Structure formats: C-alpha cells, structure tokens
C-alpha cells in the first residue's frame, strides 16, 4: 500500500492543495572565480538539433521497467557460465547463462535485492549479499552453483558484511564489516563454512572505512584500501593475517591512492591516484622498488582494474566527460589496447576478475543512451565481441529512442559545466517546448551517458532533458569535486540554472515550461531550486531528497553522518552553514507544485525528510503530493514501484508543464 501525506495525516489517496505565492530569494555567496576542470570547448546552444523521425513515439513506461537491469556478475570457475543479478522477474535475483549466450536459469528467488557475487574457489557454491527491505544491512549468503537451497551464512542483523575476497584454499575470506550503530567500516576474517567472523582491523575513526582488495603471499597477508567518506582520501595497506598488523604502502593527507588489484606476490599494485595532478591517473606501483610506472597522460579520469591470470595484462577504464572507454594494458610496456565497443558507458564486469579462467576472454558491460546495459564477451585473440544478454524488450528499438549529446556551457563565474542533453524527435525550434533538468545524486557522483529510464521516458514525450554535472561532481578533477564544500545549493544550483538558460538559448525551450527532478542529492537540488529560486521552475518531482540537513544528520545512518560532515562541517560549529544550505530555510517561498516519492525504509534519506516537506507545503497551501513505498530503501528496486513512480513523474510534468488533465 502507498501513502500520501497531507497536514500530518496519512491517506491512501494523494491530496492536491491550493497553491500560494512567495517571493524570490537571491544567492548570498560571492562570485569566486572559475573552478578548474579539464579544458574543453564551449558548446553553441544553436547546435542542439531535434532529428526528424516519423516512427518516434512515447516509450511505454512498462517497456522501460520490463527491460531488465544488469547488476553484479561473475564467471563460473570453469568459464562455461556467467552468473548475473537481473530483474527478469521484477526482483533483483541471481541467474546464470552459458558464457556463449543462451537461455537464463534462475538460481535464487527473493523479494529482497541481491548482489556481491563471488563463486567459491572449487566452483560448487556462489556467495552473495542480501539485505532486508533496502536497509543496507547486508548478510552473506550461499547457493549451490547448480541450484539448491539458499543459506544465510552470517545472520547478523546489526552487522553488515560486504566485499568478500576468498583466501587461497577457499575455506576463509576477508570482508568489510559495519555495525548498524557505527560509522566506521572494519576488516574481518570469515569462516565460509560457519559464517563466523573474526575482527582483523578495527577502525577507531567513524569517518574511515576499510575494503579488502586481494590476498597475497599465499594467504599470509592481505592488501586493503582505507578511505574516507567523501572520496578525498584513500590509502593502500598491507595487512598480516591473522595478526592484523598493518603496514602503510601508499598514503598522504588529502590524496587518493585507490588500489584495485595486486599481483599474487604482492609486488605490483594497480592504483589510480590524484597525487600531484588533482585528477585520477592510472599507474602500477612496485612495492619492492618503491617506484611508479604511469600510463599515457590524459586530462580525464582513469581507473585501474584487475590483472589477467598470467599477470601480463591490466584492465583500465577512462571516463571522458561522462563517456567511458575500456582498454587492456600490457603490463611490461604499458601500451593500451581499447576494446571494440560503441560509445557510451563501457566497463569491465565480473566479481574478482573480468577475465575468463583460461585468460582468453573478458567480460564487459555496455550501455548507451539508446541501449540498456548488456553483457558482452570479448575474445582476446580475435578482438571480436559477442553479446550474451539482451536486456531490453523488443519494442525498445535504438533507432526510435531519443539520442543524447554532451554539451559544455559556462556558469555564472565562468566555470565550465558539462551536461548530457537528451533530445526528443520532431520538435520545432519555436520556443514553445517543455524541458526538465535532471541533476544526479551524490553530490559526489556524475551523470554518465548511458541508458536512463527517466530521461528516455520524458524525451520520448517531447521534453528536452538535461543532466548537468555541476560543481561537486566527480570525473572533472579534485578541485571541481571540492568546489561545493559548505556551499550546497549555492554554486551548484546556479550551474543548474545556467543549464536551463542554455536550453532556452537553443530556441527550442519555453522558459516558463521547465521542470526539475532527481533522486537523493538530485532530490535535494529539486527542493533547493524550487525554494531558493521559486520563479525559475514551473514544477518539481523530488525522489528521496533532503529538506533539512539537521534532521538528516540526526536520523540517517552513522556512516552517512560522516559524509555530511565532510560536505558541510560540524553541525554545531557550522550551524549557520547547515541552515543556509537546507531547503527548509526557504521552503515557504515555493510556488511550483511538488511531487515527493520516498522509500519507507531508506536509511540514507529517512522518510522523515519527505514528511517535513509535506507538512510545511500543506500548511502554506502549495500543491503537492507525497507517496511512500513500503519495503523500499534508497531507490526503488521492485518493478511495480518503478512503474508507479515513473508514471507519477510523467503525469506530474504533463499536468504542470503541458496543461494535461490528471491521469485517472
């Protein structure tokens, strides 16, 4: 059952209230100068084009939701099968397919979301993680690789276990653990027969978290990464087992050393670091010689992956302005060989490795603006790629789905902002068309040019959709990522408004028919935009967004509290910052109608945030609807809720941007 809130009471039917006006609030922060990011040309708004396509039509919401998602994946230990998490039945359960492609076989059946796949070393079992109702308190489970009863190994409701790395011999492993009541993430050993865990490294700082990377030296030691909550620090450590004695391998204050793999002898470590550059670059660190070798320089973000079984090849990805390429690197020469994949989001798949056990094939995932994510197996000898999944339903023909373009515009202070623009077909350049801004979550995140159900649904109905990567986003260097510190809803909001102006200057968009929507931090951006600049947007739809940083701090997960401190400072010492950046400070100025959608068991943005919004808007008479989805966390995993929420967003904008009648 879904509930809507109005005047502090819960009703089964949404209630629309009478709209009230409010005065506009201006920004208070001064212009501080352009924020550094990779150099790139500024786009001409007139360069946006709406292609002609007589076959184009509104994409049914059901077709988007019945297109299966692609979650965690893993090779079977003999290389004959691929395990994957997908929503074939409307739930994120585990299936397996032949590695050459073929009909999927279901291994698990659960109402809960599953992930974190890891086959046992002998291939008989598949380990995975599962939580309850989106609460993110994951346990580790096991299921026979050929099918059978599922077993919960850990059964620890107050302790989360993730990131399993199996030790040589296959009977034990290392995991990250987190108590529900604490912020820090620790390292532990796990007995894979009994599920019992034993602490290995106990972190005293609630802002720091540990993650195992790989076993080395025949299981005598473990390589691990220790990082902070807001991705501005990462260190590489060698951990003796079972003593837990820790030795720092790479680490400097305010510097990222993100290790992704290490050779079995512990000598070579694959690392992405921003040391000396402010941008992540890929390299190989020799722990014996204490020396670096670097890949060819690029202004864009690089990430390392895994070594091949023979240690001669390393996987690397490059994120260039929201599009990613996947390459194989010769460890001896550091020469790169890009894989033959179309533009979009290309990444290496697989649990502990994307390489097949014999090293002859590699598993990759591809997603494009007009193609849902699919798995492909690349033959490393011939370079040929073979698609082994078809996640999209047949009606989602790429030629009839809206296309994207990455544009760059200047914001209020000259800072370059990149954005993904999804253009509908068959629009007239007459300044009458609606548009929707779609900021991403995080804020430590990035919109990338892959398949986006919301953008596709809206663009196929005539809305120009822009996903701006505002200051604070990842992918554009550390100075850009840090530029929103204690300025949430300040410069980043002005970046969104500059994106709206770019669309208006294209000649397509009516400035009075622009909406805004997003989830998590995108929901926050929706709220702060409507509240702080009430004349800019005609309607908003926020999904699990933040209205009040104080109450968010008090009620969210302990780890998330540390993330908030990294963005805003201490809630006591920096009280004025929390007030100035909270939409609740300005919410009584909201004019535009607001839709709020919220998971009932969200630990990141608890339901109280949506309740605060609904209560205030009901009091001042601003039109609003609020819907809670039972047994959902941060994001909606169940198909029926995905369909319902997307339908509501479309209907909301149709009513308030196009003047359509409410959907019955």
TrEMBL record:
Residue span(s) of domain Peptidase S9 prolyl oligopeptidase catalytic: 451-659
SUPFAM superfamilies linked: alpha/beta-Hydrolases, Tricorn protease N-terminal domain
Gene3D superfamilies: alpha/beta hydrolase, TolB, C-terminal domain, YVTN repeat-like/Quinoprotein amine dehydrogenase
Keyword Nucleus on entry: no
Keyword tags: Aminopeptidase, Hydrolase, Protease, Serine protease
GO molecular function: aminopeptidase activity; serine-type endopeptidase activity
GO annotation, biological process: proteolysis
InterPro entries in UniProt: 6-blade_b-propeller_TolB-like, AB_hydrolase_fold, Peptidase_S9_cat, WD40, WD40/YVTN_repeat-like_dom_sf
Pfam family, one: PD40
Position of the signal peptide: none
Name this polypeptide is given: Dipeptidyl aminopeptidase/acylaminoacyl peptidase
């Amino acid at each position: 059952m879904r509930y809507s809130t109005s005047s502090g009471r819960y009703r089964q039917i949404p209630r629309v209230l009478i709209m009230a006006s409010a005065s506009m609030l201006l920004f208070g922060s001064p212009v501080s100068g352009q924020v550094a990011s990779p150099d790139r040309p500024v786009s001409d708004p007139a360069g946006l084009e709406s292609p002609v396509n007589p076959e184009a039509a509104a994409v049914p919401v059901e077709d988007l939701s019945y297109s299966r998602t692609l979650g965690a994946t893993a090779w079977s230990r003999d290389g004959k099968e691929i395990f994957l998490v997908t929503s074939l039945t409307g739930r994120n359960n585990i299936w397996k397919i032949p590695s050459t492609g073929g009909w999927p076989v279901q291994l698990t059946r659960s109402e809960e979301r599953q992930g974190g796949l890891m086959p046992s070393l002998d291939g008989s079992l598949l380990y995975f993680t599962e939580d309850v109702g989106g609460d993110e308190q994951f346990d580790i489970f096991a299921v026979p690789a050929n099918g059978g009863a599922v077993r919960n190994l850990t059964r620890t409701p107050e302790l989360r276990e993730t990131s399993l790395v199996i030790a040589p011999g296959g009977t034990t492993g290392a995991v990250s653990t987190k108590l529900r009541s604490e912020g820090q993430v620790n390292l532990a050993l796990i007995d894979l027969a009994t599920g019992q865990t034993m602490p290995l490294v106990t972190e005293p700082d609630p802002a720091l978290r540990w993650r195992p990377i790989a076993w080395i030296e025949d299981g005598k030691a473990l390589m691990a990464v220790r990082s902070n909550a807001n991705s501005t620090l990462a260190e590489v450590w060698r951990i003796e087992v079972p003593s837990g004695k820790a030795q720092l391998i790479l680490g400097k204050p305010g510097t990222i050393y993100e290790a992704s793999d290490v050779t079995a002898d512990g000598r070579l470590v694959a690392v992405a670091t921003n040391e000396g550059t402010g941008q992540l670059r890929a390299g190989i660190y020799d722990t014996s010689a204490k020396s670096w070798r670097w890949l060819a320089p690029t202004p864009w973000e690089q990430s390392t992956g895994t070594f091949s079984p023979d240690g001669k090849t390393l996987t690397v990805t490059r994120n260039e302005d929201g599009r990613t390429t996947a390459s194989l690197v010769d460890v001896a020469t550091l020469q790169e060989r890009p894989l033959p994949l179309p533009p979009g989001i290309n990444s290496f798949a697989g649990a502990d490795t994307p390489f097949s056990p014999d090293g002859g094939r590699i598993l990759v995932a591809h997603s494009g603006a007009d193609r849902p994510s699919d798995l492909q197996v690349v033959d490393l000898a011939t370079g040929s790629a073979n698609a082994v999944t078809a996640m999209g339903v047949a009606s989602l023909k790429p030629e009839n789905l809206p296309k994207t373009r990455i544009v760059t515009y200047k914001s209020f202070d000259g800072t370059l902002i990149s954005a993904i623009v999804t253009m509908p077909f068959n629009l007239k350049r007459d300044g009458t068309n609606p548009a929707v801004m779609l900021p991403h979550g995080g804020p430590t995140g990035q919109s990338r040019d892959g398949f986006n159900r919301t953008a596709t649904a809206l663009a196929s109905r005539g809305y120009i959709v822009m996903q701006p990567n505002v200051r604070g986003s990842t992918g554009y260097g550390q100075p850009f990522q840090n530029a929103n510190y204690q300025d949430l809803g300040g410069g980043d909001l002005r970046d969104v408004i500059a994106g709206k102006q770019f669309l208006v200057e294209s000649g397509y968009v009516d400035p009075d028919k622009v909406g805004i929507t997003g989830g998590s931090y995108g929901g926050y951006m929706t709220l702060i935009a409507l509240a702080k600049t009430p004349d800019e947007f005609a309607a908003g739809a926020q999904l699990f967004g933040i209205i009040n940083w104080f109450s968010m701090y008090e009620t969210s997960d302990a780890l998330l509290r540390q993330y908030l401190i990294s963005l805003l400072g201490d809630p006591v010492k920096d009280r004025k910052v929390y007030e100035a950046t909270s939409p609740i400070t300005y919410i009584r100025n909201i004019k535009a109608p607001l839709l709020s959608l919220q998971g009932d068991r969200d630990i990141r943005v608890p339901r109280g945030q949506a309740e605060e919004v609904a209560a205030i808007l009901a009091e001042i008479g601003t039109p609003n609807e609020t819907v809670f989805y039972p047994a959902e966390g941060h994001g909606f995993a169940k198909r029926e809720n995905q369909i319902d929420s997307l339908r509501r967003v479309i209907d909301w904008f149709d009513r308030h941007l196009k003047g359509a009648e409410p959907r019955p």
